[in-house]
Amino acid sequence: MNAPHLRLPVIAALFFLGLGASPATQAHAQSTSFLVLDIRDDGPMPVRWDLSVHDLVWSVFIDADYDGLATLQEIEDARASIINAALAQVSVERGGVACALRVDDLALTHRAGQDYLSLRMIADCPRTGRLAIGGPLFMTGDVSQRVLISAHRGKETLAGAVSAAATTWNEPVQVSAWASFARFIGEGVWHVLIGYDHIAFVLLLLLPSVLRPVNGRWEGAAGIGQVTRDIVMIVTAFTIAHSTTLALAVTGTMILPIQPIEVAIAASIAVAGLLNLMPRWSGWRLPLAFGFGFVHGFGFANAMSELDTSGGALFPLLAGFNIGVELAQLGIVAVVLPFIYLARRRRWYAGGVLPMGSCALGAAGVVWLIQRL
User: Fold this and answer.
1) What is the DSSP string of 172-210?
2) DSSP H or E run through 290
3) 0.85 exceeded by the pTM?
4) Which of 133, 132, 102, 134 has the alpha carbon at shortest distance from 119?
5) How far apart are CA 144 and CA 48, in angstroms?
6) CA pair distance 347, 362, nearest whole angstrom
7) Do residues 29 and 112 make contact, with C-beta atoms less than 8 angstroms apart?
8) CA atoms of 89 and 101, how far apart (whole Å)
9) Consecutive 10-residue runs of the chain (373 residues): their mean pLDDT?
10) Is residue 117 exposed (0-12), middle (13-18) or buried (19+ Cβ within 10 Å)?
């Protein structure tokens, strides 16, 4: 009688094992590059563009010995190709007139636990006025790609982002904390929506929220009051935890290596999937959400930790990003909850959907864990 319910999770788990092997599921290995500008009233203007070597090799042949690593010598050998490709990908305008760009130097650097190529460029602008940064910027239309911009204008620090959807950054007349706040709300939402591992963890917390353990089995919750209390407690614990570590990491108060964080995020998914299969252990869901929330906060911080800004300029960015993350999470809850609430008393939910979804997402977490070790 229970055989169909046992087969479904196994089939789903095998499916997600295949899906998890795809590079697309590396949720926190986004394609992010960084542009740092020193805006001056006159004379040549320094521009530094830090590009992920992993992304650059898709456009420029660098790895001559095919060992999966880009050495300084290989970069020097490909210097001309790299410079030509980079100059064709970025445009700088000032006062509505194009600036002449030249590469002054290039070197290997390290950002966010990855190898980056730092191109130090000079922009010769025939006019003064407001800047505009654009161009393909090695973005292929993939929504996961971003160019984070930090511009220094005297004592002011301007921050922005360029994406496949918003392909140009225009220098504002004056620094606007509100504009930065609003812009990074969108960045926070985007970061969650492309974060497959974060979405998987949130779903695993949601799936049993409409059920209650009775004699070692899952049964449908009595009503919306029970479900609401459960979700509020879980989401609040998770939010407090990841908001805390996001703030600590972005402000530089606490810095942890990226790889262990990514491994722990994958492990959180595997553990949450296993926990959902054991109703007697349901009391661990709240500590799980709180404990692993700290880990996910460090994962969120990777998107912002490399912004060259601090102090008062950082606060609206951090606040906006965090609110964006919360809005995206609430959006996931709002979409999923009505369906699982209506299905909670159906036998196929507790006996099929919950174990199937938990096995599938948990299996994906195991694959991500292996890939990130």
Assistant:
1) -SS--HHHHHHHHHHHHHHHHHT-HHHHHHHHHHHGGGG
2) helix 285-301
3) no
4) 102
5) 22
6) 22
7) no
8) 11
9) 40 42 43 86 90 82 80 87 92 94 89 81 93 86 77 85 84 83 87 88 95 92 92 94 89 82 94 94 93 91 67 79 93 95 93 94 94 87
10) buried
